[in-house]
């Protein structure tokens, strides 16, 4: 009988890393645990990822691509209506925070484990955070705000906070709190621009 193809070995390693790193932490999960989860060999692992940090980078890049796809889709769906888009983002965040095993933002978690700002891991984190700021600038552009970069900076801060609150606080309340806070920031900026 022909076995079902489960994707490339590289993809399978990233998928296993995604599960293990997010659940247990980057430093707590060894390459051997990922190798064991996938059922491969060290030679195969190191053929795809010369170091464990290379796998950590690939894991974070995979997570970033997923987030970007979702946020870009929400912005497109909102069609310039900032409140509609923020509502979608808040609903998604609230749903995610209520999922069993939610441990907050994988990028904040990675930054906590990799203190060296010059590490490849921190560069991925920094790139993704810059992307978030640019996404929020795109979101508020239709409003013609005086300082969209400052508003985006505030919204990134709120996004960080909601990810932490979803993990440490009551996840059932984060969506509504995030939406109220975002509306307050945007409304304040609109009043200042008027």
List the helices and strands and how they pair.
Layout: H1 9-24, H2 31-38, H3 42-48, H4 52-78, H5 82-97, H6 106-113, H7 120-140, H8 148-168, H9 174-193
Helix pairs in contact: 1-2, 1-4, 4-5, 4-7, 5-8, 5-9, 6-7, 7-8, 8-9
Plain-language structure description:
Residues 1-5 have low confidence and may be disordered. The protein is built from nine helices and no strands. The protein is 74% helix and 0% strand. The radius of gyration is 19 Å and the shape is elongated. The chain has a single domain (57-193), classed as Tetracycline Repressor, domain 2 (Orthogonal Bundle). The longest helix is centred in the middle third of the chain and has 27 residues, at 52-78. The chain has 194 residues and is mainly alpha-helical. Helix 5 packs antiparallel against helix 9.
């Amino acid at each position: 009988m022909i076995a079902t193809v489960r994707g490339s070995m590289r993809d399978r390693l990233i998928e296993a890393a995604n599960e293990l790193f997010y659940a247990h932490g980057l430093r707590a999960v060894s390459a051997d645990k990922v190798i064991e989860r996938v059922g491969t060999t060290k030679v195969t692992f190191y053929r795809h990822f010369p170091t464990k940090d290379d796998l950590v980078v690939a894991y974070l890049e995979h997570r970033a691509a997923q987030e970007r796809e979702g946020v870009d889709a929400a912005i497109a769906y909102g069609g310039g209506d900032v409140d509609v888009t923020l509502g979608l983002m808040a609903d998604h965040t609230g749903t995610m925070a209520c999922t069993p095993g939610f441990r907050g933002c994988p990028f904040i978690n990675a930054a906590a484990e990799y203190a060296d700002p010059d590490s490849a891991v921190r560069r991925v984190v920094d790139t993704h955070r810059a992307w978030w700021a640019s996404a929020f600038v795109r979101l508020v552009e239709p409003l013609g705000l005086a300082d969209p970069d400052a508003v985006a900076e505030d919204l990134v801060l709120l996004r960080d906070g909601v990810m932490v609150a979803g993990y440490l606080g009551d996840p059932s309340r984060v969506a509504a709190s995030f939406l109220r806070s975002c509306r307050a920031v945007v409304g304040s900026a609109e009043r200042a621009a008027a």
